[in-house]
Amino acid sequence: MRVFLIVWFGQLVSLIGSGLTNFALGVWVYQRTGSVTQFSLILLFGLLPSIVVSPIAGAIVDRWNRRWCMILSDSGAGITTVAIALLLAIGNLQIWHIYLAVSLSSVCKAFQLPAYTASTSLLVPKEDLPRASGMVQSAQACAQLISPLLAGVLLGIVQLKGIILIDFATFLFALTTLLLVRFPDAKTAAVPVNGKASLWRSALEGWTYIAVRPGLLALLIVFAINNFVFGLIEVLFPPLVLSFTSVTVLGTIQSLGGAGMLLGGVVMSIWGGPRILIRGVFGFVFLSQLCILAFGLRTSAALFALANFLFFFCLPFVNGYFNTILLRKVAPEIQGRVFATLQMIAFSCIPLAYVVAGPLADRIFEPLMATNGLLAGSIGQIIGVGTGRGIGLLFITMEILAILVTVAAYRYPRLRLMESELPDVI
């Protein structure tokens, strides 16, 4: 655990630094363009390259030393940060420079995440894997909670240049922690003699490994659907809250979400989890779905604050238990490919949600719930009518469908009994 704790702390510091830069660059773009579309493109460029590159990244992670994969990917992200700082210093920073830098950082992330996750099973005893996963989730929650608050303060003191320099310092710290430790040797995938085609075949092995195990495939489908709904929330939650309250209240509600995620990660790190982890996954998935359902029922700031806190409280348990199951059931020599494939499929639903969220809300659901809308006299009598109520109905509709899929998936024996049917590899 000592080596894991050193690596974990370095990655925590780096996550906070990256969060500072991401927040500050978003503000910089929006202040100079006033365009929500150009602002949202940062989210898109920060996600899509990682999705596209993930299969190849996973295959390479399984062939290379995982510590060096993390070192090189952190270095690549650090170089892009330096490039942004130099362009800003000479007064030549353009919007497209930021899109390019965010895209390159996303490619580095495609290598870093599978290498980091797959390394956990090398560093941590089997019985401590749930706690280690909880610590990883806590680090992400901590960055989500601290970075926006700290960046808002630092922007007024050291401005964008200073924040980028701080981010670079956090990259150096993370690199130092990785250089100071050694990972246990793990069996790596054999490198075939043929060139590119062999690498592609190796990348596809991650999908094959999942596809021939129906329990893992069913769990992946559940996660993909829930990620799609999460993408809708990410886009539509601010407009929904602002339809009945102020920006200050919105910020408070979102901060409570970060606090809930941090508390969930801490609780999981201390507790570990139930004996049968798949029950924990579905229990917390179901609770998170009820929280989203609550967003659509009433325009109450107190209800939104409580539901958002509980929703983010559930996320570390869902993601942590899911990762723990995989670390126990997937052979170490193929973990990079499996995690990369899961990342590609599950995350690919989020950009789709970004694309369809606006049209679904503006052209279909909001007109239905307008004062004189088609559903104003029926559903409108229950959840209300007017601005934002269409988004509320969209949340309710999507969550009812997601809950039905989740219940049906849990009734599937191969998924429900996956932990006993698939042997542990550790």
Automatic annotation (TrEMBL):
Membrane topology reported for the UniProt record: Multi-pass membrane protein
Transmembrane segment boundaries: 39-61, 68-90, 163-181, 216-237, 243-264, 276-297, 303-326, 338-357, 391-410
Chief location: membrane
Name recorded for this polypeptide: MFS transporter
Subcellular location: Cell membrane
Keywords, in A-Z order: Cell membrane, Membrane, Transmembrane, Transmembrane helix, Transport
InterPro entries: MFS (IPR011701), MFS_trans_sf (IPR036259)
UniProt lineage: Bacteria, Bacillati, Cyanobacteriota, Cyanophyceae, Oscillatoriophycideae
Organism expressing this protein natively: Laspinema palackyanum D2a
